[in-house]
C-alpha cells in the first residue's frame, strides 16, 4: 500500500515536471505571472486615478444612467487582455460615475463581470487565447485531429454562445434600464493606493503596448501571416515587452523611481504565483486525462448512448458544472478540451462539422463557471471593484447567467442537429 502511494506521488511529480518541457506551458505560465506585474505597475503609477480624473473633466458627456452604465461596458470591451484587469479597471473607474446616476453596485458588478471572461474569450489575443490554442495544438500534435489551431479556434468562437448571449443580455439590461436590487450598501473598497494627480498614459502605455506587441509577434512568428503565428509565444513576448516599455516610460516621465518599478514588477509577479500554480496543476490534470485515454473511453460510451447532434450540448453542460463547482474556467478548459476533441473525433463522418461546435461548448461552459461561480476570481474582483457584497453580486447575477446558459443550450441543440443533417 505504502509502495503504491509512493509510486503514485513520484509519477505525479514526474508528470508535472515533464510539462516544463512543453514550450507553450512555460510561456502561458510566465504570461500569467507577469500580467500581475502589469497590474501592479498600473496601480502604483496612478494610471487608474488619471483615467478617473480624465473622465471627471469630461463628465458632462455622460448625462444619464444609461450612458453611465455603458462606460464600464465599453471599458470592458476595450481592455480584453486579462479578465482580472478588465473587472478591476472597469469597476474602479466607473463607480464614481454610476453612483452619481443611481446605478446599484450590484448592477455595476454584473456589468464588470459580464465584460471580463466573456469578452476575453471573444477576443482571444491574450492569455485565454494562448491557453486555448495550446490545448488544441496539443491534440493536433498527439494526432487526435488534423487542423490549423488558429483557424479552428476562430471558427469555434463563432459558436461561443454563452459569451455572445452574456454580452447581449448585459446590453439589454442597460438599454431597458433594468434595476438590480441593492442588498447591501457598502463603502467603496480601497483597492489601490491611487495618486491624486495620476497620469492617464500610465494606464494607456502598458495596455496599448501589450496589444500592439501581440499583433507584431503574431506577424513575426507566422512569417508574415498572423493567422499562422504562435499565440503562446506572442502573448509571452508581448507581456515581457510591455513590462519593459512601461518601466522605461515610467522612468522617463519620473512617474515611479527605479526601485519602486522593480518592486512593483516582483510584487505583482509574486501575487500571481498561486494562479500560475493552479494553471500548472490544471495542465497536469489535462495531460493525465489524455494519457489515461479518458476521452477515448467516454467517446465509446457517448457514441453508444448519444446521438452525435446531442454531443455539443452534453459537453457544454458538463463543462458548465465543472467550471461552476471549481470556479476556474482555465482548469475546465484543460480538463475538458482533450476529452471533447477526442470524443468528437471518434464519432465518424460528422466529426469535421461538429469539432468547432464541441470546442465552443467547452469554452462556453468554462466561461459560465468563470462568470457565475461565487469562487471565481473574476466574480470576487468584480464585486470588490464595484464596492458591493460578494454574495449580493452572485445572487443578482446568477439569474441572468442562467438565462444565458439556457439560451446557449437551445442554440447548441439546434446547431448540433443542423450540422448532422
From TrEMBL:
Pfam families in the record: Na_H_antiporter
Principal subcellular localization: membrane
Keywords recorded for this protein, A-Z: Cell membrane, Membrane, Transmembrane, Transmembrane helix
Gene Ontology, cellular component aspect: plasma membrane
Segments forming a coiled coil: none
Signal peptide: none
Name of this protein: Transporter, NhaC family
Domain of life: Bacteria
Listed transmembrane segments: 24-42, 70-90, 123-140, 152-175, 200-221, 233-252, 272-290, 302-323, 335-363, 400-419
Entry membrane topology: Multi-pass membrane protein
Na+/H+ antiporter NhaC-like C-terminal domain segment(s): 119-417
Compartment(s): Cell membrane
Amino acid at each position: 500500500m505504502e509502495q503504491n502511494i509512493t509510486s503514485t506521488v513520484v509519477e505525479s511529480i514526474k508528470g508535472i515536471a515533464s510539462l516544463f518541457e512543453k514550450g507553450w506551458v512555460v510561456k502561458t505560465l510566465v504570461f500569467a505571472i507577469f500580467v500581475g506585474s502589469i497590474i501592479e505597475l498600473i496601480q502604483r503609477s496612478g494610471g487608474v486615478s488619471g483615467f478617473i480624473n480624465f473622465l471627471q473633466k469630461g463628465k458632462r458627456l455622460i448625462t444619464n444612467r444609461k450612458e453611465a452604465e455603458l462606460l464600464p461596458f465599453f471599458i470592458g470591451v476595450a481592455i480584453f487582455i486579462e479578465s482580472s484587469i478588465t473587472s478591476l479597471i472597469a469597476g474602479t473607474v466607473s463607480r464614481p460615475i454610476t453612483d452619481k446616476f443611481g446605478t446599484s453596485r450590484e448592477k455595476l458588478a454584473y456589468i464588470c463581470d459580464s465584460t471580463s471572461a466573456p469578452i476575453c474569450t471573444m477576443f482571444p489575443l491574450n492569455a485565454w487565447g494562448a491557453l486555448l490554442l495550446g490545448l488544441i495544438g496539443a491534440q493536433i500534435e498527439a494526432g487526435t485531429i488534423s487542423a490549423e489551431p488558429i483557424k479552428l479556434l476562430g471558427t469555434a468562437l463563432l459558436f461561443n454562445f454563452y459569451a455572445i448571449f452574456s454580452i447581449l443580455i448585459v446590453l439589454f439590461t442597460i438599454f431597458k434600464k433594468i434595476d438590480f436590487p441593492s442588498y447591501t450598501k457598502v463603502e467603496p473598497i480601497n483597492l489601490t493606493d491611487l495618486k491624486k494627480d495620476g497620469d492617464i498614459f500610465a494606464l494607456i502605455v502598458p495596455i496599448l503596448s501589450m496589444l500592439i506587441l501581440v499583433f507584431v509577434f503574431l506577424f513575426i512568428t507566422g512569417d508574415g501571416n498572423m493567422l499562422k503565428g504562435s499565440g503562446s509565444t506572442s502573448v509571452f513576448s508581448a507581456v515581457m515587452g510591455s513590462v519593459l516599455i512601461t518601466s522605461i516610460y515610467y522612468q522617463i516621465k519620473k512617474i515611479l523611481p527605479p526601485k519602486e518599478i522593480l518592486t512593483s514588477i516582483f510584487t505583482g509577479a509574486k501575487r500571481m504565483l498561486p494562479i500560475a500554480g493552479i494553471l500548472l496543476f490544471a495542465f497536469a490534470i489535462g495531460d493525465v486525462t489524455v494519457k489515461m485515454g479518458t476521452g477515448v473511453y467516454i467517446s465509446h460510451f457517448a457514441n453508444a448512448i448519444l446521438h452525435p447532434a446531442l454531443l455539443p450540448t452534453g459537453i457544454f453542460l458538463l463543462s458548465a458544472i465543472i467550471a461552476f463547482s471549481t470556479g476556474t474556467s482555465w482548469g475546465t478548459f484543460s480538463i475538458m478540451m482533450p476529452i471533447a476533441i477526442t470524443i468528437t473525433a471518434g464519432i465518424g463522418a460528422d466529426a469535421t462539422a461538429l469539432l468547432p461546435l464541441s470546442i465552443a461548448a467547452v469554452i462556453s461552459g468554462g466561461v459560465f463557471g468563470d462568470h457565475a461561480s461565487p469562487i471565481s476570481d473574476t466574480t470576487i474582483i468584480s464585486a470588490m471593484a464595484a464596492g458591493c457584497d460578494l454574495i449580493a453580486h452572485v445572487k443578482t447575477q446568477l439569474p441572468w447567467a442562467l438565462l444565458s446558459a439556457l439560451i446557449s443550450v437551445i442554440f447548441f441543440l439546434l446547431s448540433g442537429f443542423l450540422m448532422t443533417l
